[in-house]
Write a structure and sequence with these properties.
Elements lengths: L3 H12 L5 E2 H8 L3 H13 L4 E4 L4 E4 L12 H15 L7 H14 L2 H13 L11 H13 L3 E6 L5 E13 L4 E7 L4 E6 L3 E4 L14 H10 L4 E7 L3 H7 L5 E5 L5 E7 L2 H9 L5 E5 L1 H16 L10
Helix pairs in contact: 1-3, 2-3, 4-5, 4-6, 5-7, 10-11
Amino acid sequence: MLETSARLLKLLSLLQLPRDWSGAALASELGVGVRTVRRDVDKLRNLGYPVDAVPGVAGYRLGAGTALPPLLLDDDEAVAVAIGLRAAATGSVAGIEESSVRALTKLEQVLPSRLRHRIKLLQAVAVTPSGGPAVQPDVLLAVAAATRDRQRLRFDYRSHDGTTTIRTTEPHRLVHTGRRWYLVAWDVDRADWRTFRLDRLEPRIPTGPRFTAREVPDLDATARGVASGGYRYQARFLIHAPAEQIADRLGPSIATVTPVTATTTQVDAGSNSLDELALYIGLLPFPFEIQSPPELIAHVRTLTDRLTAAIPSNGELSG
């Protein structure tokens, strides 16, 4: 006969199968009497598992409760969940990237080595579309684990011009903007908050000592760092529209929106592409002025000349 704890785990595993169990069938599977099954079901209920009674057959099924209890996964299920979470963490499903990383960090912490090997093999032959630069799952997980455990993180960081420096940080939070992953961290050497693109980051393992969490930085300041920090070009625009209308169209990870007057707004944004900066603002249905940088002003002049030259002189399409 199984020990009580082992028997409860096996009972939970049986109840997670999509079927109704009679008390006699469960007793047979567990090698105990029906009365023991009833007592074990009561223990699971006390632990928060919603075990429902099935009328008519004196049976049981696992139902939905008000809180999520721990689940038991077999090897194939654990691999499937890990692969799905990795895909979601890279942005394949908008809006759940950060929560996917947290769940994946918890799962991979307890995965046996044989399952880790299977996951890596599957990842090696799979192709995952992505709208931004690729971040290796091992890098994402290492940074997430250091952030969760409040451990200092040292890493090699490559800037936009290709130079590499070694940074020592106290990682605070991972942020996904829809295209890229960023780490918001306290830079120990520079004594200030910084944002780092994960696709340019290579962690140095093992991590450093634990640290005491600092006061959370202002969310607006963090957004400004993500919107403009680490990019080749930082641009400033003056848009003739109320700030709330601009903010509805440009998220905090894309630009920083600052009201100037009731009808004018300053917008700061960053990008490695002048075309991208012009596109973001040019598609807004409001008049605007480019205040900086000079390269963007010259680029828009050239682009305007090209677009004007593409219009037939008589204003009509040929053919």
